[in-house]
Design a protein that fits this description.
single chain; mainly beta; six-stranded antiparallel beta sheet; five-stranded antiparallel beta sheet; 3 helices; globular; binds 4-hydroxy-3-methoxybenzaldehyde; binds fe (iii) ion; metal-binding; oxidoreductase; metal ion binding
Amino acid sequence: MNIRFPNNDFTSFEAPMRAEIDLDGLEVVQGAVPQHLDGGFFRLIGDRKWPSFVENDVFMLNEDGMASCFYFKDGRVNFRMRYVRTPRFVAEEKAGRALFGQYRNPFSDDSSVAGLSRGTANVTMLVHGGKLLAMKEDSPAIEMNPFTLETIGEYDWDGKVTATAITAHPKIDSRTGELVFFGYCAAGPATTDIAYYEADSNGRIIHEAWFHAPYTCMVHDIMVTQNYVVFPITPLRHELEWIQRHEPAFKWDYTKEVYLGVLPRKGRGDQIRWFKGPNQCHGHTIGAYDDGRYIYADNTFSKRSFFRFFPNIDGSQIEPAHTMPYAKRVVIDMEGQGDGFTEQPLFEYPGELPRIDTRFETVPYSFATMNLLDVPGQERVGGGFQWIATLDVSGKGPSKILYAGHNCSIGEPQFVPAHDEAAEGEGYIMAVVGRHEQMRSELLILDASDINAPPVATVALPFRLRSTGHGYWYGGRQLRGETNLLGAW
Ligand code: V55
Ligand code: FE
């Protein structure tokens, strides 16, 4: 059979790599890698092994997960990249062709794979309870070896997690090391069931609750504080009839309100309180905390879904400005009588892939970093994410912006603390830059307090890395299972 990828947006720099890589001793072309850095910068990339048999496939979201890691030790950087051998990947490898069809549509699959997990494990890599998991929100987590990136298999927390799908954006409580996570469409495709779980710092399930969302939609991320969990229900709708008719699995609905579902931490499903607000689309959570009465939850929101391949439900043309995400703070008064919430803007430029110093997950914080899509007035050549910004969500400190360069893309920034006792935001920002003219990528290690200073180090790769996917830093002690708290090493 002729293997041929379609001629679409994903050619050139973004063409599938389809290659697994081991490269020890990456070249440091500028500066020096800090000697004391011990750990791994894990990034999950989408990379289709076999061309889709579906026309106009949702490429970015429906690609095989490719686990990658920059391992740091003694000032050296080693790189490894391996496909996540999901049940889907293994079945397709055996067949030597794609067997799974449209994004989130089991009715479009080859009959030989009926009932097999459709998960691609292409969103986030989590280390918790001494395990490395590759995650995708429509399927179970996949366990991998944190050092070799070999796939171990599906992981269900010793049978305690029965939801058919687990979020790719769990949160680790920075005080307790507990893992807070959920699944939506947790009782099967296009169901309103949401399952909420917590695991203790050793990875044992200590809480489970189920409830129903007011309507079916994508629930990509959550907000977690010391006392509350907030589930964002925003109308990137998902209906069984659509997938039965082979229409896009998700469509944007301008008519529905937003519902923020608040549960006390470790609360029961029937304790959920819904707070309503105007139509908009949730992107990612930045950070969240509460003071006992008010929940402060920072997120990116756009007027409609960022993804232009999901059409408007009414068939209207997509307004490009409506896809632009902006950082906003949501405030919920848990002692008030109302069922609404207030919002305030956090940053003037559109951006996504926000991250914080993870040691401040669930507690008051101020440091954030994100990719920007546009900086009005700044000259640029190229498109998409070309800047990173650091900002102070408390509004007290200045924000900084770094342009990656003409025809250069930049990936999600990752904060790495300088050492375990480092103050919030004291440390490094790692980000992969794609140099499209050279068809090569670089890993930048920046001073988080001044991203405009010359990089601490520039690590060169002799190949390109596709620009999708989230990243996470895990310290060596975490990787070796010696601690479950997020830290430097
Ligand atoms: C996102 C990414 C996905 C997905 C759903 O918002 C949402 C990002 C790469 O896969 O399936
Ligand atoms: Fe995400």
